[in-house]
Design goal:
Number of helices: 11
Low-confidence stretches: 156-163
Radius of gyration: 27 Å
Strand content: under 5%
Largest sheet: 2 strands, parallel
Distance between the termini: 55 Å
Number of strands: 2
Mean pLDDT: 78
Protein backbone atom coordinates (compact mmCIF):
# COMPACT_ATOMS: atom_id res chain seq x y z
CA UNK A 1 0.00 0.00 0.00
CA UNK A 2 2.88 2.50 0.52
CA UNK A 3 3.55 2.14 -3.24
CA UNK A 4 0.00 3.22 -4.07
CA UNK A 5 0.31 6.08 -1.60
CA UNK A 6 3.46 7.33 -3.33
CA UNK A 7 1.88 6.90 -6.76
CA UNK A 8 -1.18 8.95 -5.74
CA UNK A 9 1.02 11.73 -4.44
CA UNK A 10 3.30 11.81 -7.49
CA UNK A 11 0.49 11.54 -10.03
CA UNK A 12 -1.51 14.27 -8.29
CA UNK A 13 1.43 16.65 -8.73
CA UNK A 14 1.75 15.59 -12.38
CA UNK A 15 -1.95 16.27 -13.00
CA UNK A 16 -1.58 19.77 -11.62
CA UNK A 17 0.94 20.66 -14.34
CA UNK A 18 -0.73 18.68 -17.15
CA UNK A 19 -3.07 20.65 -19.42
CA UNK A 20 -6.27 19.17 -20.84
CA UNK A 21 -4.90 18.55 -24.34
CA UNK A 22 -1.98 16.58 -22.98
CA UNK A 23 -4.27 14.70 -20.60
CA UNK A 24 -6.57 13.42 -23.36
CA UNK A 25 -3.64 12.70 -25.71
CA UNK A 26 -4.30 15.23 -28.45
CA UNK A 27 -1.38 14.42 -30.78
CA UNK A 28 -2.21 17.37 -33.01
CA UNK A 29 -1.11 19.75 -30.27
CA UNK A 30 1.04 17.70 -27.89
CA UNK A 31 4.43 16.39 -28.99
CA UNK A 32 4.46 12.61 -29.44
CA UNK A 33 7.58 12.19 -27.30
CA UNK A 34 5.84 13.92 -24.41
CA UNK A 35 2.72 11.88 -25.00
CA UNK A 36 4.65 8.60 -24.81
CA UNK A 37 5.40 9.27 -21.13
CA UNK A 38 1.75 9.85 -20.25
CA UNK A 39 -0.71 7.21 -19.04
CA UNK A 40 -3.27 6.26 -21.74
CA UNK A 41 -6.71 7.74 -21.13
CA UNK A 42 -8.38 4.31 -20.96
CA UNK A 43 -6.08 3.30 -18.12
CA UNK A 44 -6.78 6.59 -16.32
CA UNK A 45 -10.54 5.93 -16.52
CA UNK A 46 -10.05 2.39 -15.20
CA UNK A 47 -7.79 3.58 -12.40
CA UNK A 48 -10.22 6.39 -11.52
CA UNK A 49 -13.02 3.86 -11.07
CA UNK A 50 -10.79 1.66 -8.92
CA UNK A 51 -9.60 4.56 -6.78
CA UNK A 52 -13.13 5.88 -6.30
CA UNK A 53 -14.36 2.50 -5.07
CA UNK A 54 -11.27 2.01 -2.90
CA UNK A 55 -11.72 5.33 -1.11
CA UNK A 56 -15.41 4.59 -0.58
CA UNK A 57 -14.54 1.16 0.83
CA UNK A 58 -12.02 2.68 3.25
CA UNK A 59 -14.50 5.28 4.49
CA UNK A 60 -17.67 3.17 4.47
CA UNK A 61 -16.15 0.12 6.17
CA UNK A 62 -13.84 2.18 8.41
CA UNK A 63 -10.72 0.26 7.39
CA UNK A 64 -8.37 1.95 9.85
CA UNK A 65 -5.22 0.20 8.61
CA UNK A 66 -5.73 1.95 5.24
CA UNK A 67 -6.34 5.40 6.72
CA UNK A 68 -2.75 6.51 5.92
CA UNK A 69 -3.59 5.93 2.26
CA UNK A 70 -6.88 7.84 2.40
CA UNK A 71 -5.53 11.40 2.35
CA UNK A 72 -3.36 10.98 -0.77
CA UNK A 73 -6.06 8.94 -2.52
CA UNK A 74 -8.76 11.56 -1.91
CA UNK A 75 -6.48 14.32 -3.17
CA UNK A 76 -5.81 12.45 -6.44
CA UNK A 77 -9.45 11.45 -6.73
CA UNK A 78 -10.54 15.08 -6.55
CA UNK A 79 -8.09 16.01 -9.30
CA UNK A 80 -9.43 13.27 -11.56
CA UNK A 81 -13.03 14.20 -10.82
CA UNK A 82 -12.48 17.94 -11.37
CA UNK A 83 -10.80 17.17 -14.67
CA UNK A 84 -13.76 15.04 -15.71
CA UNK A 85 -16.16 17.87 -14.82
CA UNK A 86 -14.20 20.09 -17.17
CA UNK A 87 -13.50 17.89 -20.20
CA UNK A 88 -15.90 14.92 -19.68
CA UNK A 89 -13.26 12.29 -20.38
CA UNK A 90 -15.26 9.44 -18.79
CA UNK A 91 -18.34 10.17 -20.89
CA UNK A 92 -20.64 9.11 -18.05
CA UNK A 93 -22.36 11.68 -15.75
CA UNK A 94 -22.88 9.01 -13.08
CA UNK A 95 -19.35 7.56 -13.36
CA UNK A 96 -18.26 8.78 -9.91
CA UNK A 97 -21.51 8.04 -8.06
CA UNK A 98 -21.62 5.10 -5.63
CA UNK A 99 -24.79 2.96 -6.10
CA UNK A 100 -25.18 2.18 -2.38
CA UNK A 101 -25.67 5.90 -1.75
CA UNK A 102 -28.70 6.08 -4.03
CA UNK A 103 -32.24 6.84 -2.88
CA UNK A 104 -33.03 3.16 -2.48
CA UNK A 105 -30.32 2.79 0.15
CA UNK A 106 -31.46 5.60 2.46
CA UNK A 107 -33.96 3.45 4.35
CA UNK A 108 -31.27 0.84 4.97
CA UNK A 109 -28.80 3.47 6.14
CA UNK A 110 -31.31 4.98 8.54
CA UNK A 111 -31.46 1.64 10.35
CA UNK A 112 -27.70 1.69 10.86
CA UNK A 113 -26.59 4.73 12.87
CA UNK A 114 -22.91 4.01 12.20
CA UNK A 115 -23.42 4.17 8.45
CA UNK A 116 -25.75 7.15 8.76
CA UNK A 117 -23.05 9.12 10.58
CA UNK A 118 -20.69 8.65 7.64
CA UNK A 119 -22.87 10.63 5.23
CA UNK A 120 -21.65 14.06 6.47
CA UNK A 121 -18.03 12.90 6.11
CA UNK A 122 -18.65 11.73 2.55
CA UNK A 123 -20.40 15.01 1.71
CA UNK A 124 -17.41 16.92 3.08
CA UNK A 125 -14.53 14.87 1.64
CA UNK A 126 -15.85 13.17 -1.51
CA UNK A 127 -19.27 14.67 -2.34
CA UNK A 128 -19.09 13.47 -5.94
CA UNK A 129 -19.88 9.94 -4.71
CA UNK A 130 -23.44 11.12 -4.11
CA UNK A 131 -25.44 12.55 -6.99
CA UNK A 132 -26.37 16.23 -6.84
CA UNK A 133 -30.06 15.37 -6.44
CA UNK A 134 -29.35 13.14 -3.45
CA UNK A 135 -26.98 15.67 -1.91
CA UNK A 136 -29.77 18.23 -2.13
CA UNK A 137 -32.13 15.85 -0.33
CA UNK A 138 -29.52 15.18 2.36
CA UNK A 139 -28.99 18.93 2.78
CA UNK A 140 -32.73 19.44 3.26
CA UNK A 141 -32.83 16.64 5.83
CA UNK A 142 -29.93 18.25 7.72
CA UNK A 143 -31.74 21.59 7.68
CA UNK A 144 -34.92 20.07 9.11
CA UNK A 145 -33.00 18.28 11.86
CA UNK A 146 -31.07 21.41 12.68
CA UNK A 147 -34.30 23.38 12.99
CA UNK A 148 -35.67 20.77 15.38
CA UNK A 149 -32.66 21.33 17.65
CA UNK A 150 -32.97 25.11 17.66
CA UNK A 151 -35.19 27.39 19.69
CA UNK A 152 -37.65 28.46 17.00
CA UNK A 153 -40.27 29.89 19.38
CA UNK A 154 -39.00 33.22 20.72
CA UNK A 155 -42.40 34.27 22.03
CA UNK A 156 -42.42 31.56 24.72
CA UNK A 157 -38.95 32.14 26.15
CA UNK A 158 -38.26 35.16 28.29
CA UNK A 159 -34.76 34.31 29.52
CA UNK A 160 -31.56 32.76 28.24
CA UNK A 161 -29.24 30.21 29.86
CA UNK A 162 -27.78 32.91 32.08
CA UNK A 163 -31.18 34.01 33.33
CA UNK A 164 -31.26 37.32 31.47
CA UNK A 165 -34.84 38.45 31.08
CA UNK A 166 -36.23 39.38 27.68
CA UNK A 167 -33.24 37.74 25.98
CA UNK A 168 -35.35 37.14 22.87
CA UNK A 169 -36.44 40.75 22.63
CA UNK A 170 -33.75 43.01 21.16
CA UNK A 171 -34.20 46.75 21.45
CA UNK A 172 -32.50 48.64 18.64
CA UNK A 173 -32.19 52.42 18.56
CA UNK A 174 -32.88 53.79 15.09
CA UNK A 175 -29.90 56.15 15.30
CA UNK A 176 -27.54 53.39 16.44
CA UNK A 177 -28.58 50.32 14.43
CA UNK A 178 -24.98 49.32 13.72
CA UNK A 179 -23.76 49.77 17.30
CA UNK A 180 -26.75 48.13 18.97
CA UNK A 181 -26.90 45.35 16.40
CA UNK A 182 -23.28 44.34 16.73
CA UNK A 183 -23.40 44.62 20.51
CA UNK A 184 -26.27 42.13 20.61
CA UNK A 185 -24.85 39.77 18.01
CA UNK A 186 -21.45 39.77 19.71
CA UNK A 187 -22.87 38.32 22.92
CA UNK A 188 -25.46 36.06 21.31
CA UNK A 189 -24.44 32.39 21.54
CA UNK A 190 -27.28 30.64 19.74
CA UNK A 191 -27.18 32.48 16.42
CA UNK A 192 -29.72 30.14 14.82
CA UNK A 193 -32.43 30.74 17.39
CA UNK A 194 -35.12 33.30 16.60
CA UNK A 195 -35.43 36.65 18.31
CA UNK A 196 -37.68 39.69 18.10
CA UNK A 197 -36.76 43.23 17.19
CA UNK A 198 -38.18 46.27 18.90
CA UNK A 199 -37.12 49.61 17.41
CA UNK A 200 -36.58 52.67 19.60
CA UNK A 201 -37.30 55.98 17.86
CA UNK A 202 -35.33 59.21 18.07
CA UNK A 203 -37.30 60.25 21.17
CA UNK A 204 -36.34 57.12 23.10
CA UNK A 205 -39.80 55.55 22.80
CA UNK A 206 -40.61 52.05 21.58
CA UNK A 207 -42.22 52.00 18.16
CA UNK A 208 -45.57 50.32 17.74
CA UNK A 209 -45.65 46.96 16.03
CA UNK A 210 -45.06 43.31 16.78
CA UNK A 211 -42.15 41.62 15.08
CA UNK A 212 -43.59 38.81 12.99
CA UNK A 213 -40.53 38.70 10.76
CA UNK A 214 -40.79 42.04 9.01
CA UNK A 215 -38.93 44.05 11.67
CA UNK A 216 -36.19 41.43 11.86
CA UNK A 217 -35.79 41.59 8.07
CA UNK A 218 -35.61 45.39 8.22
CA UNK A 219 -33.02 45.20 10.99
CA UNK A 220 -30.79 42.75 9.10
CA UNK A 221 -31.13 44.79 5.90
CA UNK A 222 -30.15 48.02 7.62
CA UNK A 223 -27.34 46.30 9.51
CA UNK A 224 -25.79 44.89 6.34
CA UNK A 225 -25.71 48.24 4.51
Amino acid sequence: MPILDVFCDVYTKKLMITDDEEFVGNTEIVDEKIQENNIPLKKIVFFGKFLNELVFKIVWDRIEKLYPLKKASIKLLKELYNRDCRIKYTGDPSFWNIPVLSDAAYDIQSDNPLKKDLIPDICADVPHMISFENRLKIFQIFLEKDKENQDRFPYFSESDDEGNQDSKLVRIRRQYILEDGYEYLARKKAMKSLFQIKFINDYGMEEEGIDGGGLLKEFMTQLSK
